[in-house]
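Notebook p. 47: complex prediction with 6-O-alpha-D-glucopyranosyl-D-fructose.
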Amino acid sequence: MALTGTDNHRWWKESVIYQIYPASFLDSNGDGWGDIPGITSKLDYIKDLGVDIVWCSPMYKSPQADMGYDIADYKDMDPMYGTLADMDKLIAELKKRDMKMMMDLVVNHTSDQHAWFLESRSSLDNPKRDWYIWKKPRLDADGKPQPPNNWAMILGEKNSGWTWDEKTGEYYLALFTAEQPDLNWENPEVREAVHDVLRFWLDRGASGFRMDVINLISKHQDFPDADIIEPDHQYQPGYKYYANGPRLHEFLRDMNREVLSKYDTITVGEMPFVRDEDEIMKVVGAEAGELNMIFVFELVDIDNKPGGFRLTLHPFDASDIKRCITRYQRLMIDRDGWNSLFCENHDNPRSVSRYCDDSDEYRELGAKLLCLMQTTLSGTLYVYQGEELGMRNVPPSWDPEEYKDIEAINFWDKSKAMYGSDEKKLAEAKHVLQRKARDHARTPVQWSAEKNAGFCPPEAKPWMRVNDDYQTVNAEAQLKQSDSDELSVHQFWKRGLANRKKHKDVFVYGDFAPVGEDQEQVFAYKRWTDSEAWVVVLNFSGKEAEWEIPGDVKVEGWMAGNYTAGKPEKGTSGKVKLMPWEGLLGQLKV
Ligand code: ISL
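Predicted complex, structure tokens below:
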């Protein structure tokens, strides 16, 4: 039964979360890498934007094979980012500002340098052998060892998900990269060790967790071959057998019962691949006792070849965006669950480049359009560093060598190996990276117009190249933009977040319905409670549109839009003319 009125209000529903990708946030010591003191020094900036919770991507001890998503010690920081004392200070400074810390919990796998794995691989009878997933090889016609099944590696999709260990003569499962062996959650000792990590951080003052690929922790124990989806690849996407496996809900409920329920936490599970509504509700239903919410990937997978790998391209348009968002808005209202709202993170290209148009002419409008949408939908809102500035993808002129991410590197190396001198195929592979490499979101945050964009001192060398546009796209310029001018993207976000808070009953908790659906390129919806109602009209295209206000949508007035800092001057009945990428927010008569 859905709760009514304010009975269902929770702090973690109305909080705004800001995701920090630490390596690229702010370098305080001139080594070219962002660090914990850099984050602490920007808390006033983050608070001023309207943020309540900071989620940091992993800063634990790590060889950085996958930028910290390969953890070698869950209870210590990597020196490149700082110390545990720096972390304590960050948490304390957040608390001082009435803000909270969300940790990134990466427990589907560890680093191959974690003490647990070093023990596990040391011999067949080591007590920690069974903490990871070891299998005997299949033998080919020549008696040579072959992986136990055909699952592809996720971050090197043309390789096997299994890595051969010469010393003990077995394969271990490492779905992301060979340096990230998957933990064996079937073993109760592993689950207990994870609970211990949770307690460690909660006791240190963290308020919750973003749980990395948490739906991969239970695998089908017969490890069957995956269906052939990409016939010219040796290895295939195997998620049918490792995502949302048979014991997932049991493991999540245990975690909740044993640890989380004893603290006042916020939890969000990253859940790629899942689309099944019953499966989603089992996790995020109000009575589920599993997680507060999850990251569903439908919107960020919108340009993937259906069923295939992520580094592919597939056309989409406004109606796909509309269908996807409407589905999850309605689902959570109808079945009493909770959404997360996000268009960006460190694994995806920049949203303005992907869903709108990042040309100089339309970048700001597109970024504001996406802001208007996200700040008026129901769910807990996640803003990714630089999104509030409308940062865009790196230009296509950059060489693949500028891409630093292991996924892009593996993809490019394998493409060269597979396609050799086939220029056309190689150009296609390059084009995929130009659209979708994770690197686009990982360039240093552009704080100012000075050399290195204020991310690190001018004389230092940033670990990753700064996007070429930092002299025009940067925080300093956007904060300075005077109020009489057009709002900068940053100012637009700040105002949007404040408006969301002010009207949280309707924007965070209210009802949702699409309206006036006859225009393909326009996504329009109504949000309402018994006492107030709003309409949002978004032209998701570079073409002008005429949107007919439906008879039952009684517009009182247009309150905001992305073309003007003031109130848009538009008619309140009949047809409304929309400019390219124009978005409007109107108040309705109740
Ligand atoms: O980027 C992807 C691969 O093409 C995504 O599918 C990604 O792997 C998936 O979202 C899981 O991401 C998380 O776990 C990975 C890590 O590399 C990502 O950075 C992290 O967000 C392994 O820990």
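Notes: Residues 509-588 form a domain with the Immunoglobulin-like fold (CATH 2.60.40.1180). The chain has three domains: 11-110+188-480, 115-173, 509-588.
Next step: compare against the earlier run before touching the bench.
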